[in-house]
C-alpha cells in the first residue's frame, strides 16, 4: 500500500535562525532554543508517512513540537523547510490535476502552493479538531450554521442539502437534532468537542487532524469523545494525525506513534511496541510516568 501523505524534513524555526540552530538544539542539548541566535527550533527534519485509514500518534512533553506538526500540515504556519505531498489517486480529479507533479503519482510539494491553493486543499481534503473549541467553532453561530459554513468553504451551495448533512453529522456525533439551532456557547465542553468533530467531518476529509481534543475534559466525557472518534474513524476509514501528551489516548486511537522531544522525533513505531518495549530513554521515562 502506498502512503496517502508523505512529510519530509519538516522544519519550523521561530526567530531569525542561524547556521548553528539545528546542530545546537535537540534532545542531546536538552533545549530547542539556539544558544547563538536564540531562535526556537520547534521541529527539525521530521519525516513521516501516513497510510490510508491509518491513525498516527504524535506524543511528547509540552513544547516538544507536536502542535507545530499539525499546524504545518494544516497550512496554518509556513514551514521553514521540508516537503509535504499527497498521493494523487484519492484526490478529486480537479485537485489531482491542479496539484500534479508530472513525474510522480504524488502531488507537488504542498508547501510551495499559494495561500489560495492551500485553502482549496484544506477545504477539500482536511478536517481539524482543536483542544480549544474557540479555535474550531464560532460560538455565537448555530451548530448547524457552523457546519454549513464549512460546507460552503468546500463548495456546497444547496441549502437543503447542507441542512441534511448538518443533521446527519450532529446525529452521528450524538448532538440532539432539537439543539441544532443553538450556538455552541450554550453547550458543555464535551458537546462542543462533538460539534467540532461534526464540523471537521462535514466535507468528508481524507485527513483528520486532532490536537489534544480531550485534554481538559472530565474523564467520563473524555472516554465518550474518544469512543466516538474511534467509531467514526472505523466507519469512514479516516486517516488521522493525533497529537496528545496522554499515552492513554495514543494507545486507544493510534496504530503507529512518533515520540517527540525538543523538536525531534526520538522514536517511532507500532504503538503497542512503543508502549510495551520503549527503546529511547525519554520514551521509557514517558511510559513509566504514565503507568
Ligand atoms: N508563535 C510562536 N513564536 C515562538 N515560539 C513558538 C511559537 N509557537 C510555538 N512556539 C514554540 O515552539 C515550540 C513547540 O511548540 P508546540 O506548540 O508545537 O509544542 P507542543 O508539543 O504542541 O506543546 P503543548 O503540548 O504544550 O501544546 C515551543 O518551544 C513553543 O514555545
UniProtKB/TrEMBL annotation:
Which residue windows are transmembrane per the record? none
The record places domain ABC transporter at: 5-287
- Xref: PROSITE patterns: ABC_TRANSPORTER_1, ABC_TRANSPORTER_2
Q: Name one GO molecular function term.
A: ATP hydrolysis activity
Superkingdom of this protein's organism: Bacteria
The Gene Ontology biological process annotation of the record reads: organic phosphonate catabolic process
Task: For this UniProt record, give its keywords in alphabetical order, as a comma-separated list.
Answer: ATP-binding, Nucleotide-binding
Q: What is this protein called?
A: Putative phosphonate transport system ATP-binding protein
Amino acid at each position: 500500500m502506498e502512503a496517502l501523505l508523505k512529510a519530509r524534513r519538516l522544519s519550523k524555526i521561530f526567530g531569525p535562525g542561524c547556521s548553528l540552530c539545528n546542530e545546537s538544539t535537540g534532545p542531546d542539548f536538552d533545549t530547542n532554543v539556539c544558544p547563538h541566535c536564540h531562535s526556537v527550533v520547534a521541529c527539525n527534519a521530521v519525516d513521516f508517512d501516513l497510510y490510508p485509514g491509518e491513525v498516527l500518534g504524535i506524543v511528547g512533553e509540552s513544547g516538544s513540537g507536536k502542535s507545530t506538526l499539525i499546524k504545518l500540515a494544516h497550512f496554518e504556519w509556513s514551514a521553514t523547510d521540508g516537503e509535504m505531498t499527497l498521493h494523487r489517486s484519492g484526490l478529486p480529479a480537479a485537485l489531482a490535476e491542479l496539484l500534479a507533479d508530472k513525474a510522480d503519482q504524488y502531488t507537488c510539494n504542498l508547501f510551495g502552493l499559494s495561500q489560495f491553493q492551500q485553502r482549496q486543499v484544506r477545504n477539500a481534503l482536511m478536517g481539524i479538531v482543536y483542544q480549544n473549541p474557540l479555535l474550531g467553532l464560532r460560538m455565537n453561530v448555530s451548530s448547524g450554521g457552523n457546519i454549513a459554513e464549512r460546507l460552503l468553504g468546500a463548495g456546497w451551495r444547496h441549502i437543503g442539502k447542507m441542512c441534511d448533512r448538518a443533521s446527519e453529522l450532529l446525529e452521528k456525533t450524538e448532538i440532539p437534532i432539537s439543539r441544532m439551532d443553538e450556538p455552541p456557547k450554550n453547550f458543555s465542553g464535551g458537546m462542543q468537542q462533538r460539534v467540532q468533530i461534526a464540523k471537521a467531518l462535514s466535507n468528508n476529509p481524507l485527513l483528520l487532524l486532532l490536537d489534544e481534543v480531550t485534554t481538559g475534559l472530565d474523564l467520563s466525557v473524555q472516554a465518550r469523545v474518544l469512543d466516538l472518534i474511534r467509531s467514526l474513524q472505523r466507519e469512514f476509514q479516516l486517516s488521522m494525525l493525533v497529537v496528545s501528551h496522554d499515552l492513554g489516548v495514543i494507545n486507544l486511537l493510534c496504530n503507529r506513534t512518533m515520540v517527540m522531544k525538543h523538536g525531534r522525533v526520538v522514536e517511532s513505531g507500532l504503538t503497542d511496541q512503543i508502549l510495551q518495549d520503549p527503546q529511547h530513554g525519554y520514551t521509557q521515562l514517558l511510559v513509566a510516568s504514565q503507568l
